Every structure is written in structure tokens, then in C-alpha cells.
Model the fold of this input.
Amino acid sequence: HEAGIRMLSEVDGALARAMGLAWSNPDVGFHDRFRRFAMLLDDGAVTAFHLDEMGVCAITTGEAMLAELG
Done:
């Protein structure tokens, strides 16, 4: 936490479903996983939210989020 960055995960998909960001691919064992997204929070308030298109990693990269910080 020294850098002020925290990465989180979940195991049951409840938050992904609640946020409307769940996707599944049962053929490979993926059930209610998060779509790729990144968000910045300031004291618990979302200040930026980026959702990549399926199969793309562009606006959710570390570099993109650092640029968001200015």
C-alpha cells in the first residue's frame, strides 16, 4: 500500500454480476468472471472507470491508468 495502489479479486462472481460486468465461457471453465476493467477511486468515490472491449487490452493498462492520474 506504500504506492497507494491496491489490486482486488473475487472468487464467486457476485460483484461481477452486481456490476453488470460478468461474462462466462463454460467450455473453458470460466463462470461469471469480470470483463477487463480498471477504475480509479479517491476516498471510496470512483473518479475514472475504463471498460475494454472483449478480447482487447487497451484502455485498462497500467500506462493508461497512470496517464489518467496526470
